């Protein structure tokens, strides 16, 4: 419809122009002595229009010809940028494909062409690091820092990641501190920091970061829980030589972070320091709570049965209460036998030790019975259990 309107408008204009020219009887007289030129006004208008078109075409042609070198240069530059962009894309693709040598070559070409120089340098640095060419890696990292200030955060993140992979954890922490000072803390940086602090042995820092990541749902709960356990175990080992420091640290462990592995390590460290009463409390706190994960552990019962200090009678009473819930636990029966033997409760000790052997044969139970019969001067029975313990050891 619009096209039809314009066609009709052009026809109307043409008709109007023809009628106007036919009705126009004017003329133009040009006098340039000794010449006189007389032409119709219609012809003059036509010649004037043609002259304008001619001058415009000539000027247009001149400027196009004069600007052709510039346009040629701009065309070549666009072509070079397009080729450089393809090279940069190839560098990224090759890096993800694991073809690091070719990725380094393409990234070098893209950097020389000026295509995203900061990112091209980062790609080259990553490729060089994967190829274990540390000299090239450092050089490209330096170029990335200088070429484009906008890539500072990316450069520091990559530097921290590469330092972690090279097990240079202190340097990774330095890079992350610079990153956090200028760009704040985010989840990816916290994960890198967690890895660096694990490698550096900063277990207090690991616990702090694990709690932060748990609040942000940045790691599965099972992973966070295991990280916390490993951190607590490392801290317990670090404080194992000082009873005061160890006790203070154990009191500071949150209830939701305590499990049987932590209690087991704590009990072993406390018994090595002669703090049997405190070790008893630690073990009882976890064995009395069946809701804890896999709380009923034989290792805890073994230590509990060997505790020499503290209230032995109360300890026996507590273990006998557990026995009502776990009547067929050979390790618990052995622990009760040892405690009764220590208290010189000969009959109960023999009963518990024999019950333990009835549930499961063990060298420890035979040795404890042999000791008991030695104390009772029943040599024949003692020798029988010594021989049985030797056979258990051989098996």
Topology of this structure?
Layout: H1 2-23, E1 27-32, E2 35-40, H2 41-97, H3 100-112, H4 117-130, H5 134-147, H6 152-165, H7 169-183, H8 187-200, H9 203-215, H10 221-239, H11 243-252, H12 260-272, H13 276-287, H14 298-306, H15 312-325, H16 330-342, H17 346-359, H18 363-375, H19 379-394
Antiparallel strand pairs: 1-2
Helix content: over 70%
Question: SSE order in H/E notation?
Answer: HEEHHHHHHHHHHHHHHHHHH
CATH class of the domain at 315-395: Mainly Alpha
Ranges where pLDDT stays below 50 over 5 or more residues in a row are none
Instruction: Assign the CATH superfamily of the domain at 315-395.
Output: Tetratricopeptide repeat domain
State the total count of DSSP E strands: 2
Outline type: rod-shaped
Distance between the termini: 103 Å
The spatial strand order of the largest sheet comes to 1-2
Radius of gyration, taken over Cα atoms and rounded to an integer in Å: 46 Å
How much of the sequence lies in strands comes to under 5%
CATH architecture of the domain at 315-395: Alpha Horseshoe
Write down the CATH topology of the domain at 315-395: Serine Threonine Protein Phosphatase 5, Tetratricopeptide repeat
Number of helices: 19
- Kindly state the mean pLDDT as a whole number? 84
Largest sheet descriptor: 2 strands, antiparallel
Structural class: mainly alpha
Description:
With 395 residues, the protein is mostly helical. Among the domains are: 243-310; 315-395, Serine Threonine Protein Phosphatase 5, Tetratricopeptide repeat, CATH 1.25.40.10. 78% of the residues lie in helices and 3% in strands. The chain has 19 helices and two strands. The protein has helices spanning 2-23, 41-97, 100-112, 117-130, 134-147, 152-165, 169-183, 187-200, 203-215, 221-239, 243-252, 260-272, 276-287, 298-306, 312-325, 330-342, 346-359, 363-375, 379-394; strands at 27-32, 35-40. It has a two-stranded antiparallel sheet with strand order 1-2. A hairpin with a 2-residue loop joins strand 1 (27-32) and strand 2. Helix 7 (169-183) packs antiparallel against helix 8 (187-200) and helix 16 (330-342) runs parallel beside helix 18 (363-375). The chain is rod-shaped. The chain starts with a helix and ends with a helix. The mean pLDDT is 84.
């Amino acid at each position: 419809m619009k096209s039809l309107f314009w066609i009709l408008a052009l026809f109307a204009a043409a008709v109007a122009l023809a009628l106007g020219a036919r009705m126009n009887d004017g003329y133009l007289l040009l006098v340039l002595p000794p010449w006189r030129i007389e032409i119709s006004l219609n012809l003059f208008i036509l010649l004037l229009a043609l002259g304008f078109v001619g001058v415009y075409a000539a000027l247009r042609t001149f400027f196009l010809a004069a600007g052709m070198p510039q346009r040629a240069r701009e065309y070549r530059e666009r072509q070079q940028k397009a080729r450089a962009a393809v090279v940069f894309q190839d560098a990224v693709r090759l890096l993800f494909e694991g073809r690091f040598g070719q990725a380094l070559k393409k990234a070098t070409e893209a950097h020389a062409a000026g295509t995203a120089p900061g990112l091209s340098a980062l790609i080259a640095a990553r490729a060089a690091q994967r190829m274990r060419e540390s000299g090239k890696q450092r050089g490209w990292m330096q170029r990335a820092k200088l070429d484009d200030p906008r890539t500072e955060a990316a450069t520091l993140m990559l530097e921290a990641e590469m330092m972690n992979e090279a097990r240079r954890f202190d340097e990774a922490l330095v890079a992350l501190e610079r990153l956090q000072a200028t760009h704040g803390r985010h989840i990816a940086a916290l994960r890198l920091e967690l890895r660096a602090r694990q490698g550096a042995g900063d277990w207090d820092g690991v616990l702090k970061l694990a709690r932060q990541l748990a609040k942000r749902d940045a790691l599965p709960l099972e992973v966070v829980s295991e990280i916390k356990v490993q951190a607590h175990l490392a801290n317990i080992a670090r404080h194992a030589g000082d009873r005061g420091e160890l006790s203070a640290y154990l009191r500071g462990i949150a209830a939701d972070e305590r499990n049987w592995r932590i209690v087991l390590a704590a009990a072993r460290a406390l018994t090595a320091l002669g703090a049997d009463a405190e070790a008893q409390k630690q073990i009882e706190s976890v064995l009395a709570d069946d809701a804890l994960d896999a709380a009923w552990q034989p290792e805890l019962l073994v230590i509990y049965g060997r505790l020499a200090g503290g209230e032995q009678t109360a300890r026996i009473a507590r273990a006998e209460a557990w026995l009502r819930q776990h009547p067929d636990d050979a390790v618990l029966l052995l622990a009760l036998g040892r405690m009764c033997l220590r208290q010189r409760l000969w009959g109960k000790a023999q009963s518990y030790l024999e019950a333990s052997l009835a549930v499961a044969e063990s060298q420890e139970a035979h040795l404890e019975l042999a000791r008991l019969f030695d104390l009772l001067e029943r040599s024949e029975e003692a020798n029988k259990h010594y021989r049985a313990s030797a056979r258990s050891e051989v098996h």
